[in-house]
Amino acid sequence: MILEQFSLAGKVAIVTGCDTGLGQGMARALAQAGADIVGVNVSEPRDTAAQVEALGRSFLDLRANLAETGCIEGLVKEAVRVCGRVDILINNAGIIRREDAIKFSEKDWDDVMDINLKSVFFFSQAVARQYIAQGRGGKIINVASMLSFQGGIRVPSYTASKSGVMGITRLMANEWASHGINVNAIAPGYMATNNTAALRADESRNQAILERIPAGRWGKPDDLAGPVVFLASDASSYVNGYTIAVDGGWLAR
């Protein structure tokens, strides 16, 4: 039956940056579909853990600063030690820095690129090695952005990092599909999260954004539930290297 292909029962998913916002929503959705969750965060994801456990799934709380890639191999090993396997990786952790390009600092460039792009590649690499060792393939889902497709303003390193995420998603899909590893990405549109609080508080910018979105509203974390479960499940076994926009129609304008 087709619905059985969407089940994640018995699967283990690593979700980075799942203490709030989109990461929390995706972790909750994966748990609703049957997956146990390994959360990788800087701070304690208390609410996320409670939501996952209320669904009858387990939650393993791992702490790390992914700006330092040296921790990644150990995180994967600990997930396997405790959970026995890994089946899904959601590379969601990310940061943003806003400043005019003419004044943008090297530190703000490096900080964003290290989290948003460098850690995505090396976490994917470590998990892909684990998938190959397990011999059963697996899923890698990266979080891209509308700025993987557009330039934006005042976010040069964020735009560069998210454009890079879409590119390496294709690259990794090309190299790893033969191992049964599906690598895809989700590009959220304007979402009501901590990252967009300043935009939503600016009345003129908020109105301009809403007027551009055909759906007429900001997205919510739950809007990613269906896409992330689809990409994490057997239903997407022939989808490779694709970035799905979840944007209320923004890119269609």
Write up what this structure looks like:
With 253 residues, the protein is of the alpha/beta class. It has a single domain, classed as NAD(P)-binding Rossmann-like Domain (Rossmann fold, 3-Layer(aba) Sandwich), CATH 3.40.50.720. Helices cover 42% and strands 15% of the residues. The chain contains eight helices and seven strands, in the order βαβαβαβαβαβαααβ. α1 packs across α8 (225-232) and α4 (106-134) runs parallel beside α5. The chain is globular. The model has no long low-confidence stretch (mean pLDDT 97).
For the biggest sheet, the summary is: 7 strands, parallel
- What is the percentage of strand-forming residues? 15-25%
The average pLDDT value, as a whole number, equals: 97
- Measured distance between first and last alpha carbons: 37 Å
The name CATH uses for the topology is Rossmann fold
Helix content: 40-55%
Could you give a quick summary of the protein structure above?
This protein is of the alpha/beta class and 253 residues long.
Summary keywords:
8 helices, 15% strand, globular, Rossmann fold, alpha/beta, 42% helix, 253 residues
Please outline the helices and strands.
Blueprint lengths: L11 E5 L4 H12 L3 E6 L4 H9 L4 E5 L8 H12 L4 E4 L14 H29 L3 E6 L12 H21 L4 E8 L8 H5 L1 H10 L12 H8 L10 E4 L7
Parallel strand pairs: 1-2, 1-4, 2-3, 4-5, 5-6, 6-7
